[in-house]
Amino acid sequence: MNDPTPPPAPTSRRTDQAASAAKSDSGRKTTSADGSQAAHEQAVASPDLEALTRNMARFYEEAGKATAAYLKPLEERRGHVGAADEMSDMVKTLVQVTEKWLVDPQKAVEAQSRLGLSFMDIWANSLRRMQGEEVAPAITADPKDGRFKDEDWSTNAYFDMLKQAYLATSRWAEDMVDEADDIDDETRQKARFYVKQLAGALSPSNFLTTNPEVIRETFNESGANLARGMKMLAEDIEAGHGELKIRQTDASKFKVGENMANTPGKVVFRNDLIELIQYTPTTEKVLARPLLIVPPWINKYYILDLNPDKSFIRWAVAQGLTVFCISWVNPDERHRDKGFADYMREGIFAALEQVETITGERQVSAIGYCVGGTLLSVALAYMAAKGDDRIASATLFTTQVDFTHAGDLKIFANEEQIRAVEENMEARGYLDGGRMAAAFNMLRPNDLIWPYIVNNYLKGKDPFAFDLLYWNSDSTRMPAANHSYYLRNCYLENNLSQGRAELEGVRLDLSKVTIPIYNLATREDHIAPARSVFVGSACFGGPVEYVLAGSGHIAGVVNPPAKPKYQHWTNGPPVGTLEDWIAGATEHPGTWWPHWFEWVREKDPREVPAREPGGGKVEPICDAPGTYVLMRA
């Protein structure tokens, strides 16, 4: 569920003598695309040759360390798991698309001609601009595309032509995929994804000699930026045990339990899979029915408790809810056989037992986030089959139960790739958290990969201290049995929505789940697309309140009332198509949080005196956030 919204642009807090000296030099005026002097002055200095020599020596020294870090797993015969399988699938998919074009030579020539004409237009426009004419560009970048924000991408004739040629080529490649005949939907979706990855990787903004910002910084700092960047690259490959683990934030600024995940509470229960946290009340009275939160196990729970200003958990406590939250263990080889049934029994069911012991309330309201919501839905179907009514209402945050429209993550869920993942997990007993984090980052490469590669390794700058990206990097492992069940029954075979999934011999039929469901989707979600959540709503047999929030998988959920960034839409139950529902929906400014709380309170408005953690029935084990959340992958 990794989908943090990155900060506008990483900046550096580093200082360098060469850079400082360069900034004191007088700037020179640059020439604009039409041949006149630019209106702005760029502080570009000639490099200090002595400093450049020293910095290049540092650069090559750090490059040797980076190479050694990359080769270390190969020397230890651990290899780089999965890379060959992914590359093979990409080549096979793109070859299929190419073959569809080659069977019709005339159509292929016409497509090639379109690209050639685009290049001719770009070249002709560039010549006219250099002769002093004001000419609109043949192709423009998306205003949201931060790669080409620097002024030189528009005012400098060379960089402007380079940018336009890249945009024309990448969009032409996307059109080639969309217009290919006789391609099944799965292959087309994969081809689109792989073309997006290649286009993102080949952007001129990613290379030293074709990025004007990087060129300026390299001149100004006499190459010190490249030496720093190579040092950071070596450190990040070492941190990734031979694979690049891109630093997206300054991790030294955050500590879980201090300035993150610091809502007061106690761990009131612990077993092999969970620690159960009960939060300290801040109101004299609370709703009688407690709230149990089931977070995803592929991330740590504190996405809902980042800091006091963004914490959904702290806010829920302040509304008068008795809040319990599961904190999953970061599993290792000892947990290899822990499957979905174990996560249901030792996770959700164990938590329900403790909540009843502590509060005396048999029934709870429950929240499931992302795959935590999928697990909660599985538990609800199981409980419906067994006549277990301990969950009286459920809220699903960006949760899929039908995976027909599951988005680009389905790229990683074909039979060959799942089998390769299972072989990897069989050897280790778990899937390394970095593998899943990398997959999520690939869904938004131009936001979560390439800006940091340029900023960190070419500019040599530290990224911002950003809490969401710290959480994003705090990945968790996944037990082999659990992850295999999830991939096969959900992404590959879509068994859960079809009533074909089984758990402990019980057929899981979501239509038997008749409790009220609050189903939250987010409009720009690329992990659990709004359409997928909408379609999944029809699987449940009871009343469903579908709510659509602005933004994406994380920002649309973590949208506090005190500082709301995004709106939300309501229109009752999900009837018809998503487009029909949106057309009739009411847009509300700000967050959906108060709307959700009124929905919860309406289900059971009874109030009781506030409950302290443990309730006098259970001795707390330790302070929140506990110990499991501190375990690093």
UniProtKB/TrEMBL annotation:
It comes from the Bacteria. One of its GO terms (molecular function) is acyltransferase activity. It is found in: Cytoplasm. Residues 1-47 are annotated as: Disordered. Residues 144-316 form the Poly-beta-hydroxybutyrate polymerase N-terminal domain. GO terms for cellular component: cytoplasm. NCBIfam families: PHA_synth_I (TIGR01838). This is Polyhydroxyalkanoate synthase. It comes from Saliniramus fredricksonii.
